[in-house]
């Protein structure tokens, strides 16, 4: 088996400028580039040129049309990293169906939680067909009972449909494209109605000179899940719009062997990759006990960061560890976006690495002013997320809707051709998010030298005695304890008996000895007191239960709060121990 070529030898290079996803694939299919799938040991397990994908997608589309599925109906797909997902996604595009990519089961959390998620997503999308990998077909069949889905199963179920000689019905310019469930929408799923024109505008901004500036010799590597907008658009659709080849490692395999991500980049001489902060952190931690002999990362010109709050200390440690292997810190490219703008809203400057703004924590909390100070225990560091895409104005507004000047923290609003049309069949939620053409992102941030600085989600903000406390400040500080890892801590507030807010810190750890558990609780409370100056309740949680995540893999503080208040964590760890007063 031979991987696809890095560059086309005959097809003229074209960077975006297409009207629809089918048109993008039609053009890329004329070349030799495509997609390659690798296992956790770096072995090539499957490969498809874009031309081969197009042929298989056409067959899949004719089967859907021949089976009587109508234009505009929805096909739900469990979005694992395998050729079948791409065949079904693009097949739906050519059949005029709306693909609905959904997440895989979390490593922790249980069958019932995943079945409940699938049921809600099937209902929210009104999917008439649903496809899963062989491993997940049973889950999907169970979840689809009583739903609108008329055909449910693995790829073999769909391949059993006859391929009839029918005309294709591809989506065109300005029409719908797919439904993307947004972050945090697991409990009450909101499908972002992605339109072809909005997607094309966002892809053009991503791969153009303002963003990645993808060229005809670039090669792309990704472990990002394809149900997440960063994986689906950033590392499937956008590279295809530039006729690039993509090397894939599944998210599960990355979690098991994170160094394989970098080994694949080194061996295949990839120039572009991306990860949330936790991916860089996991790789750095694993590399502490591994040799870097033979690893050459000098080929990386873009190491993007996005998908969640960016932790500057994580990036610094990654650069220090892999600098000897040729990694250039200037390759870091912070970015910011969300499904409601398709994917990207801002990018850092290429080759400029990451820049940190250090501000006074107290003034930020009490006055929402980001005053620059020297680093200290009373300061807070934020990574600059770059400049907004061209033709996408962004405003920072206060609670009254007034536009704020530089270094004043407020709510982030955005406008432009990439903004969603709305949430699928959810007019009230759409009206709440879209006001006079402006998208309320739900995020807080401020301006610095024309660049956007994101400080966190407005709904996650903790307010104690009039002070604004960002949960990340608590979580990241507690995660510095040697027995914990990134993602092991969740902070939120609850109403105390006196009507004030009380902070709860859930720690995903359960030491075997009671003395060790008591010590961990005390250490966590001490760090929180030193970091943000408030007392807290610490709840230890058995790793077999795990912290809840959104469908896109982000920590769900709202679900953790709900479970905590319902008493679901009491049996998974020690009951809350109030801080001494």
Characterization of the model:
This protein is α/β, with parallel strands linked by helices. It folds into three domains: 237 residues, Rossmann fold (3-Layer(aba) Sandwich), CATH 3.40.50; 109 residues, Luciferase, Domain 3 (Luciferase, domain 3, Roll), CATH 2.30.38; 104 residues, GMP Synthetase, Chain A, domain 3 (2-Layer Sandwich), CATH 3.30.300. Helices cover 31% and strands 22% of the residues. The chain is built from 17 helices and 27 strands. The chain starts with 20 loop residues before the first helix and ends in a 16-residue tail after the last helix.
Topology:
Layout: H1 21-28, E1 34-38, E2 44-49, H2 50-66, E3 74-78, H3 83-95, E4 98-102, H4 111-125, E5 129-131, H5 137-143, E6 151-153, H6 155-159, E7 176-181, E8 191-195, H7 196-207, E9 220-222, H8 229-241, E10 246-249, H9 251-256, H10 259-268, E11 272-275, H11 277-287, E12 302-305, H12 312-322, E13 332-337, E14 344-347, E15 356-360, H13 361-367, E16 379-383, E17 387-388, E18 394-397, E19 410-414, H14 427-433, E20 434-435, E21 438-448, E22 451-457, E23 462-464, E24 467-469, H15 471-478, E25 489-495, E26 501-507, H16 514-532, E27 537-540, H17 557-565
Parallel strand pairs: 1-10, 3-4, 3-5, 5-6, 9-10, 11-12, 12-13, 26-27
Antiparallel strand pairs: 1-2, 7-8, 13-14, 14-17, 15-16, 18-19, 19-21, 20-21, 21-22, 23-24, 25-26
Helix pairs in contact: 2-3, 4-5, 7-8, 11-12, 15-16
Please give a quick description of this structure.
By secondary structure, the chain is of the alpha/beta class.
């Amino acid at each position: 088996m031979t991987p696809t070529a890095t560059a086309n030898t005959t097809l003229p290079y074209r960077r975006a400028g297409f009207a629809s996803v089918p048109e993008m694939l039609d053009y890329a299919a004329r070349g030799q580039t495509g997609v390659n799938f690798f296992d956790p040991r770096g072995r090539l397990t499957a490969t498809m040129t874009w031309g081969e994908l197009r042929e298989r997608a056409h067959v899949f589309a004719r089967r859907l049309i021949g089976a009587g599925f109508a234009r505009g109906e929805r096909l739900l797909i469990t979005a694992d990293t395998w050729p079948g997902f791409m065949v079904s996604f693009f097949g739906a595009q050519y059949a005029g169906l709306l693909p609905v990519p959904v997440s895989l089961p979390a490593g922790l959390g249980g069958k019932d939680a995943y079945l409940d998620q699938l049921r809600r997503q099937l209902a929210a999308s009104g999917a008439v067909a649903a496809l899963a990998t062989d491993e997940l077909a049973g889950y999907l069949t169970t979840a689809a009972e009583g739903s609108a889905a008329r055909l449910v199963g693995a790829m073999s179920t769909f391949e059993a449909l006859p391929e009839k000689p029918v005309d294709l019905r591809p989506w065109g310019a300005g029409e719908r494209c797919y439904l993307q469930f947004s972050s945090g929408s697991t409990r009450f799923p909101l499908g972002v109605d992605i339109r072809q024109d909005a997607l094309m505008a966002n892809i053009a901004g991503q791969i153009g000179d303002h963003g990645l500036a993808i060229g005809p010799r670039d090669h792309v590597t990704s472990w990002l899940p394809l149900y997440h907008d960063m994986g689906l658009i950033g590392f499937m659709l956008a590279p295809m719009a530039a006729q690039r080849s993509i090397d894939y490692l599944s998210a599960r395999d990355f979690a098991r062997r994170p160094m394989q991500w970098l080994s694949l980049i080194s061996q295949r001489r990839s120039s572009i990759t991306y990860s949330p902060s936790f991916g860089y952190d996991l790789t750095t931690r694993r590399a502490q006990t591994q040799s870097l002999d033979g690893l050459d990362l000098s080929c990386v010109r873009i190491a993007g960061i996005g998908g969640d709050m960016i932790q500057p200390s994580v990036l610094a440690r990654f650069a220090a560890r892999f600098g000897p292997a040729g990694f250039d810190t200037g390759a870091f490219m912070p970015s910011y976006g969300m499904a409601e703008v398709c994917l990207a809203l801002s990018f850092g400057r290429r080759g400029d690495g990451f820049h940190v703004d250090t501000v006074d924590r107290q003034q930020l909390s009490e006055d929402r002013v980001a005053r620059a100070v020297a680093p200290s225990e009373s300061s807070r560091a934020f990574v600059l997320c770059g400049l907004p895409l061209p033709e996408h104005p962004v405003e920072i507004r206060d609670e009254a809707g007034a536009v704020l000047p530089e270094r004043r923290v407020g709510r982030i609003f955005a406008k432009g051709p990439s903004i969603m049309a709305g949430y699928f069949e959810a007019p009230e939620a759409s009206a709440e998010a879209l006001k006079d053409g402006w998208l309320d992102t739900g995020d807080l941030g401020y301006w610095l030298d024309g660049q956007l600085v994101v400080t966190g989600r407005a709904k996650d903000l903790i307010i104690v005695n009039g002070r604004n406390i960002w949960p990340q400040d608590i979580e990241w500080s507690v995660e510095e304890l040697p027995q914990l890892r990134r993602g092991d801590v969740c902070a939120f507030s609850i109403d105390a008996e006196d009507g004030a807010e009380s902070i709860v810190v859930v720690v995903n750890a359960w030491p075997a000895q009671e003395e060790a558990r008591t010590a961990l609780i005390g250490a966590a409370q001490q760090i929180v007191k030193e970091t943000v100056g408030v007392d807290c309740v610490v709840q230890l949680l058995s790793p077999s239960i795990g912290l809840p995540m959104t469908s896109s893999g982000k920590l769900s503080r709202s679900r953790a709060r709900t479970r905590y208040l319902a008493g679901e964590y009491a049996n998974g760890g020690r009951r809350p121990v109030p801080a001494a007063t």
